[in-house]
């Protein structure tokens, strides 16, 4: 990160400093903070961006050996990132459980991912082509999108390239990466607002689905019914009760935005159905309805905010807290 002079800061100090944004990292424990290091560098680029370098993926290492919850820490930084570089060494293209878990955490953020194939000047032309193809082959099952992430191929270090390699190509790739990074920095506020709107759409759909599950549950319950069995029947086969089809029919929701049905088995394992109120019951004369506020933000407020940026105005910066970045609660019904 930027600083007036080259300086190293211990993680414990960073977390304790209220002027910085790292205090929430204390929840990951002292073992993690002891491994966290901040470096201040007087570089102009760092006035506009902060880089976070995570530990490398070692597939034969167990989570416990790191001494802290690696995936939870990664998720904290993923939730706050504008751009995510996944760096590969041409000699280490194996895909294991840890990398699969990491890409699961990146689901929904494919537009923010960039792939870097580093140390490319260590390979001959034919070998480089083989490695490039192998990289795509390995990543294909992990990134389930029609438009694959941009892949940058070069040797990203200050030393000169190895002789008899594709110097012109590597240099162009480095320049393209810096242009990409600069574009993301320039559009950071617009991207953040767009992401918040995308998150609001998901929250709205989730609220409508939970409301539909709850309404169906109430409709099926009788005086003599076993509530647990009734709801188990609903959550096991929501299509039998037209849960998802009803949402599509009655609201302007795209079928491509609907979440996985299986996810709601886990969700209701963590959150009992009786802990929710119907959306219609969550309206007040003074405060209005929760769902109406979200819909107003999606259709009017956030688009107007984007428009104000285009006109050169400077709205207040929106933080990750607005998007609802949070921890995943433990499912007390799921077998581990």
Automatic annotation (TrEMBL):
Gene3D superfamilies: P-loop containing nucleotide triphosphate hydrolases. Residues 1-194 form the Dynamin-type G domain. SUPFAM superfamilies: P-loop containing nucleoside triphosphate hydrolases (SSF52540). Keywords: Glycoprotein, Membrane, Sarcoplasmic reticulum, Signal. It is found in: Sarcoplasmic reticulum lumen; Sarcoplasmic reticulum membrane. One of its GO terms (molecular function) is GTP binding. It comes from the Eukaryota. GO terms for cellular component: sarcoplasmic reticulum lumen; sarcoplasmic reticulum membrane. It is a peripheral membrane protein. This is Sarcalumenin. It comes from Podarcis lilfordi.
């Amino acid at each position: 990160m930027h600083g007036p002079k080259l300086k190293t800061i211990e993680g414990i100090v960073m977390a304790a400093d209220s002027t910085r944004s790292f205090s929430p990292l204390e929840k990951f424990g002292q073992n993690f903070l002891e491994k966290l290091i901040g470096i201040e560098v007087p570089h102009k680029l760092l006035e506009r961006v902060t880089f976070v370098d995570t530990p490398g993926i070692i597939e034969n290492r167990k989570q416990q050996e790191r001494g802290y919850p690696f995936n939870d820490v990664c998720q904290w930084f993923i939730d706050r990132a504008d751009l995510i570089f996944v760096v590969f060494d041409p000699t280490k293209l194996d895909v294991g459980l840890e990398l699969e878990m990491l890409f699961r955490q990146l689901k929904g953020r494919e537009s923010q991912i960039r792939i870097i194939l580093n140390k490319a000047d260590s390979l001959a032309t034919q070998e480089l082509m083989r490695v490039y193809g192998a990289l795509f082959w390995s990543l294909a099952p992990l990134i389930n999108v029609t438009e694959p992430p941009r892949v940058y191929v070069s040797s990203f270090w200050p030393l000169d390239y190895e002789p008899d390699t594709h110097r012109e190509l590597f240099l162009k790739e480095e320049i393209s990466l810096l242009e990409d990074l600069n574009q993301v920095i320039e559009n950071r506020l617009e991207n953040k607002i767009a992401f918040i709107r995308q998150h609001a759409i998901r929250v709205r759909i989730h609220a409508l689905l939970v409301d539909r599950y709850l309404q169906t549950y109430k409709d099926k319950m009788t005086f003599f019914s076993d509530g647990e069995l009734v709801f188990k029947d609903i959550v096991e086969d929501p299509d039998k009760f037209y849960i998802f089809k009803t949402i599509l029919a009655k609201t302007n929701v795209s079928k491509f935005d609907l979440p996985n049905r299986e996810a709601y088995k886990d969700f209701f394992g963590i959150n009992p159905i009786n802990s929710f109120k119907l959306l219609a019951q969550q309206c007040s004369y003074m405060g209005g309805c929760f769902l109406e506020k979200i819909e107003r933000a999606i259709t009017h407020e956030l688009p107007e905010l984007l428009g104000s940026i285009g006109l050169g105005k400077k709205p207040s910066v929106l933080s990750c807290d607005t998007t609802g970045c949070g921890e995943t609660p433990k499912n007390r019904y799921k077998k581990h």
